[in-house]
Protein: Chromosomal replication initiator protein DnaA
Amino acid sequence: MTSDRAPVLLQGMEERLLTRFKWGMVAELEKPTVELRKDILRNKIHRDGLEFPPEVIDYIAENVNESVRDLEGIVIAIMARSTIFNKEIDLELAQHIVKGVVHSETKAVTIDDILKVVCKHFGLELAAIHTKSRKREVVQARQIAMYLAKSNTDFSTSKIGKFIGNKDHATVLHACKTVKGQLEVDKSFKAEVKEIESLLRKRG
Structure:
């Protein structure tokens, strides 16, 4: 018999059965690592004859870590939404599905969290991102912060702009488009954004 919890945590079973289970050998199976989760996803996707971009597989593996069943459920949910709404399978769709399905125990990400992590990464004072400075590192930090706010919060582009440099929604849309475009062609930039996202998840 297998179970996803220890005998002492099983509910609704007769005491005599629980006692017998406790006598048996209990072997705890650890959660799969990120790399193993990626392999599981690739196998599932290949087996079902599907195609997912590498960044989508990476995102799912890094954010869905409870069980293999959860991974398979996410793949099915993404495929279903893509088919029903005729949407391309991309990172934005994966983020939408994962946020709706996975009940994360971590605190919800705020724009303040994003600004602190981004500014720390670029070695900037928090106030710098709210100025009208056109210095390359300030502009890039501001655009990445806007992109992450759009991806990780439920705020409208107008609200995001107000909180980040007091910009209008068109500026936020342009920033998101710029970052998304650069992610597709610049590997070093993509690695940098992934590092910032990783720091955001690990924030204390």
